[in-house]
Amino acid sequence: MSKDGKTRINRVITRTGDDGQTGLADGSRVAKDHARIEALGELDELNSALGVLRARGLDEDMDTLLDHLQQLLFDLGGELAVPGTHALGEEDLVEVESRADTLNAELAPLEEFVLPGGHPDAAWCHHCRTLARRTERRLVRLAREDHETNPISLAVINRLSDLLFVMARAINLRTETGEPQWVRRSER
Predict the structure, then answer these.
(1) Average pLDDT over residues 170-179
(2) CB–CB of 171/121 below 8 Å?
(3) In whole angstroms, what is the distance from residue 41 CA to residue 49 CA?
(4) In a 3-state reduction of DSSP, which class is residue 31?
(5) Which of 15, 28, 57, 161 has minimal Cβ neighbours within 10 Å of its Cβ?
(6) CB burial readout 81-94, b (16+ within 10 A) else e
(7) How many of the other CB atoms lie within 10 Å of CB of 128?
(8) Are 110 and 176 contacting, i.e. CB atoms less than 8 angstroms apart?
(9) Residue 83 gets which letter from DSSP?
(10) HSE (side-chain half, CA atoms, 13 Å) at 99
């Protein structure tokens, strides 16, 4: 039951997608490889990966942040499931930027490019960052095809990958794990 006492999902197997079509929240049907469904799928994969990261037992502030990000991504999914709606706003963009700035203040400036890795949680966070970038590419494709796509959502996903980069660095710092860095070919 949902908070309003109404059942949201009472049946998972519907058989309505067996023909390669799927339903959007507005009742319309599109091909399962439509750009909107591709974007929704990438968003779902990113949200699932964030769930794996949360399950690893991070610091409370990181877990709270990841919960916020998962909720935000679900809001974005709702936005995509109802073409023409805009759930995310400027305040969401400011919030993601602010969280990145706060975490970044803990970190030393970079002297070289960072390689994904270090602590296993940081490595997984880097993986989530790459999923955010892939999600962003799918949203860009959808925006090219559907001019009703929310431009704020594109910016939020772009900033999210930056935030995940900073989170990975912060995890390495907090766990006192060395941060792998790129070594110039001439110095290897």
Answers:
(1) 96
(2) yes
(3) 12
(4) strand
(5) 15
(6) bebeeebbeeebbe
(7) 27
(8) no
(9) T
(10) 23
